[in-house]
Specification:
alpha+beta; Aminopeptidase; four-stranded antiparallel β-sheet; 7 strands; globular
C-alpha cells in the first residue's frame, strides 16, 4: 500500500475533500458527515496521501439507520460510505480505512462493526468478505443527497448488512 495517513476529518478538510473526492449529485456529503461528527454521532475518517484526500468513510456510532437492521442489531456501529479515488483502488486504502474504523470501535469498547453493501457492488462485497465481515440481513438502504442546485434526491439500494466481531483493543 502507498503511504497513507488516516485521521478524523477537520473543518479545513472539507474544501480539499470537495475538490478531490466530489460526489456527483451530493454536493454537501462531506460537510454533512463532518457535521454529524461534530454533533458526536459519528467519526468521519479521511485517508490522505501526499497532502491530498484519497479516501473516506464514516463510522455511525448510533448504528445503521435502516429499521430492519436496527431491529436485529440495535446500535451496532456502522461504517458506511467507503470511497477511494478510482485510480488508487486495489492498493489497500479501503482496507486501511475499514481497519481504522474497527480500531476506533474497539477503543470505544464496541464488540462488533457492521457495514452495508449494495447487491450490485461485487468489488466491495469481496473486500468485506476478505476482511471477515459476514452477512446478517438483507435490507433496503435508503438515503438522500442534495445536489448543487439544492434539490434533494432520494435513493434506495437493495443491500446486505454485514458484521464483523471485533477482538479487544490492544493494551
Amino acid at each position: 500500500m502507498d503511504h497513507v495517513e488516516i485521521r478524523p476529518c477537520r473543518a479545513e478538510d472539507i474544501a480539499p475533500l470537495d475538490r478531490h473526492l466530489p460526489t456527483p449529485g451530493a454536493s454537501t456529503r462531506h460537510a454533512d458527515r463532518f457535521a454529524r461528527q461534530e454533533a458526536g454521532h459519528g467519526t468521519y475518517l479521511v485517508a490522505w496521501r501526499g497532502g491530498i484526500p484519497v479516501g473516506n468513510g464514516q463510522v455511525r456510532w448510533d448504528g445503521c439507520a435502516a429499521p430492519e437492521v436496527r431491529a436485529l442489531l440495535g446500535d451496532c456501529p456502522e461504517f458506511n460510505g467507503l470511497d477511494v479515488t478510482a485510480e488508487l483502488r486495489g492498493r489497500g486504502i479501503g482496507t486501511a480505512l475499514v481497519r481504522a474504523a474497527e480500531e476506533l470501535a474497539r477503543a470505544r469498547g464496541r464488540t462488533a462493526l457492521g457495514l452495508g453493501v449494495a447487491h450490485d457492488n461485487t468489488r466491495a462485497a469481496a473486500l468485506y468478505a476478505r476482511l471477515g465481515y459476514e452477512p446478517v440481513t438483507e435490507y433496503t438502504d435508503r438515503y438522500s443527497s442534495t445536489d448543487a442546485a439544492g434539490r434533494t434526491r432520494h435513493h434506495a439500494d437493495v443491500a446486505t448488512f454485514l458484521v464483523r466481531t471485533l477482538g479487544r483493543a490492544a493494551d
